[in-house]
Amino acid sequence: MVDSQYYLPNDIGISALDCREAFRLLSPKEQMYAHYLSRASWYGGLIVLIQTSPESANIYVLLQKMFRAQAPPQLEAAATAAGLSAEEYQAFLVYAAGLYANMGNYKSFGDTKFIPNLPKFKALVWESLAFKQSPGDMEALWGCCCESLYSLEDKQKQLGLGEKGISAYFSGNCCLEDAEFAQKFLDSKNLSAYNTRLFKTEVDGKRCYEVRLASSEVCFGKHEFEDAVFFVKRGDYAFLMEKVCQNLEKAKDYAANDNQKRMLEEYIHSFACGSVEAHKEGSRYWIKDKGPIVESYIGFIESYRDPFGSRGEFEGFVAVVNKAMSARFAQLVNSAEVLLPELPWPPAFEKDRFLKPDFTSLDVLTFAGSGIPAGINIPNYDDIRQTEGFKNVSLGNVLAVAYATQKDKLTFLEESDKDLYIKWKGPSFEVQVGLHELLGHGSGKLFVQSQNGHFEFQISSWYKGSETWDSKFSTIASSYEECRAECVGLYLCLNKQVLSIFGHEGEDAEEVVYVNWLTMVRAGLLGLEFYTSESKSWRQAHMQARFVILRVLLEAGEGLVGLKECTGADGRPDAVITLDRSKIHTVGKSAIQRFLCRLQVHKSTADVEGGRALYEGYSAVTADGTHNFLRLRETVLLRKEARKMFVQANTYIKGSCLLVEYEGSAAGLIQSFVERFPDDAEKVEAQLNAIEEFLAPPKKTNPFLSVLIN
């Protein structure tokens, strides 16, 4: 019997992101700018299918062909003819919606595989109009993905490197040692891993690696490195990168200022030739573009899903500023220079100068990628963040629907806490996101040796040459940094000035603090869903971070946090987590203060050994000690709730720029994707099918590329 955690439930929450009013308030020029940025983002977002798993692109094409021939209501008749019940057809729609929402058949939050909860998928394909119109093509597509569609072999249950899971960033024969060796090669050539994938072969007993760089231009270079050969091949996702560039070029005509134009020019250059340096230059212009009405960012950004922690997943977002909420965040920015010294590390470990960033609340029009976060702090380039700044965004219309909670589905809390939690979860999360993004990710210094070898600090370790936070801390970097930012949020939410900025005073302010800390310890328990006991590995950076914080606060003792196992009203295993609000400002604050200081010192000084020992120690999930976390994990899995999915609008040009919205349902989500590529859907699907064939190992090298890299 298949474990239910690999199915998406038929009653999964699906909500439409409301952006109608925000889009309506844009000028015609701003609407056109947003439209073409959205087009670039949606084309680029298809890259995530290829980054997720070998079969994701083929499943996507299969579904698109079925739904382009018959919309969900029409396809239902074929489902009935194929012998599917109403529940099975709903399961099919939910699976398809899940694939679109996650841009692949692995959950974007947790990285576990999900499979169709129906045995008659093939019968439905054969009964569909798409099959009757092109039986050969549809049978070939089915043959490409039918086994992997349902396979739950141990390695295929989750994303990972080597025997720990599936990764499309690496060929299946790569292991951690290959990733580390390739990083050495990339560092030696001053190449970033952000926009690459790695594939390994062996020729005459010699290791050969192919580094594939994302670009619309195609060329090859060959390099001997130690005892191996590296082929550097530009042209990964070439067709899609070209579509991104074409739409960014069109967006330039509607840019509001020179910073936006130059930003887009650098992005186009980056995506054409695969230059991360050009993307960094574009990001510099993006930072300078203060307070735009239409905000956007695009590229290979977050490295959460690379098992080695260095390669970025493609994402692109377009959003409209919410001026009322942004005013609060602006107040927080203006208070940052007063709040930063409150953080518990020595002044020498803080940036020499705080570069005031934009911090805006945005209503999302488009977010293309594997999922939609609640807040973002970008760019992720350490050298830019340290000396030139960054931007923070809070995604307001995402927050409005993502964290709505029904009392009867609220797990692991005492009844007396549930009403408080429901009332204050939204306001407290708003505070946490603001602090997490601005003063969490935006704080702290890295000690970096200058290019001439000079440094002005007395410490035993530091960042050298081309080393970055991601390349140095690799597999733990993402989660460690999320944990540091979450701790900053917990620590500074105790500050009355911060609470006042968000409009919370007196008893209300104390409720916000209590629910913020309660949310964090509950999230630490929920995080156990994202731990794989067989491989002893974590699959989600934020949830690992929250579990670590739970461990720290449990360790603090003195009754601050209580966690007990029990039997629920339904007779099944359950658990209850409690928080003593009277000890948050004393025991809790001291525990976070000490832990946060240790996190920062290890990060600042590039102390990988010390940082890894600390973080992996608290990340351990065992049956030993006061709490049996392995048994608690089973309880969490038993009572887990599926993560909500979002339906996004489309824009079209018919004389003027039009917004088309869809209902918040599986059928609505599916229809939004069917209508997303109206002009060239078949060509896009053909390219997705052909992309792996296109990326066969190189037969010749380009000497000019070798010169360029060297």
TrEMBL record:
Its cofactor is Zn(2+). Gene3D superfamilies: 3.30.540.30. GO terms for cellular component: cytoplasm. The active site is at E437. Its main location: cytoplasm. InterPro entries: Dipeptidyl-peptase3, Peptidase_M49. Keywords: Acetylation, Aminopeptidase, Cytoplasm, Hydrolase, Metal-binding, Metalloprotease, Protease, Zinc. It is found in: Cytoplasm. GO terms for molecular function: aminopeptidase activity; dipeptidyl-peptidase activity; metalloexopeptidase activity; zinc ion binding. This is Dipeptidyl peptidase 3. It comes from Cyprinus carpio carpio.
